[in-house]
C-alpha cells in the first residue's frame, strides 16, 4: 500500500461515518417472542455528534408522579415527535438507515427520536417497558444509538420469571460510544429493561431511541 493511500484511509476513519448496518449486527433471541440485536461501532468517530447534542439539545429535567409525590427522574430528556426537525443531520441519516434495514420486518418507518442524557453514573432509568401506545399490545422495534460513556442496558422478564436457558437474573448488554442496540418482537411487552446506576467513574452518555409513531 502506498503512503498516499494509507493517508487517505486514515482520513476516512477520522470522519464521522455511519458504517454499514448488516456486517457485525448480531441477533440474540432472548425468549418469549423477543430479540435483541447489537451492532458494535455502528457510528464511527461520533465525538462531534456527542458534543453537538450535549450542547445544542434543550435538555429537560423530567418529573414523574410516583406514589404520592412528584420525584425527579435521574436523567435529562428531549423528545422529537414525527416530523419534528432533529437536532443534528446525522440523526436523520441514522433514522433513515434503520428504517430501510428494518422496513420488511417492522412494516413502517421509524418516526420519533427520544433523547436521554445520563450525566454520570448516578443517572439511570429504572425497570420499565416502552408500553405506551401500540407497543402495549403489539410487537414493535426500538433502535437505540448509544453515545459517550459506556453504560449497560439490562433486560429481565416482565413476569419475574427466569431467563430461558440461563441461570442469570438479567441479561446485560454493555453499550459503548457509537454502538447500536435494537429491541424487537415482543420485547416491550414481555421484558423490562433498565440502565442501572453505576459506581464506576463514568462521564456523560447520550441515548437516542428511534421508535415508530404512536409508541413511547
Ligand atoms: O438509555 C437507554 O439506552 C434506554 C432508555 C430507555 O429505555 C427509554 O428511555 O425508554
Ligand atoms: Fe425504554
UniProtKB/TrEMBL annotation:
Q: Which GO terms describe its biological process?
A: DNA alkylation repair
InterPro entries in the cross-refs: AlkB-like, AlkB-like_sf, ALKBH3, Oxoglu/Fe-dep_dioxygenase_dom
On the tree of life, the source organism's domain of life is Bacteria
What Gene3D superfamilies does its record include?
Alpha-ketoglutarate-dependent dioxygenase AlkB-like
Select a single GO molecular function from the record's annotations and give it: dioxygenase activity
Q: Where is the Fe2OG dioxygenase domain?
A: 109-214
Q: Cross-referenced PANTHER family, in alphabetical order?
A: ALPHA-KETOGLUTARATE-DEPENDENT DIOXYGENASE ALKB HOMOLOG 3
**What is the protein's name according to its record?**
DNA repair protein
Species, as recorded: Intrasporangium chromatireducens Q5-1
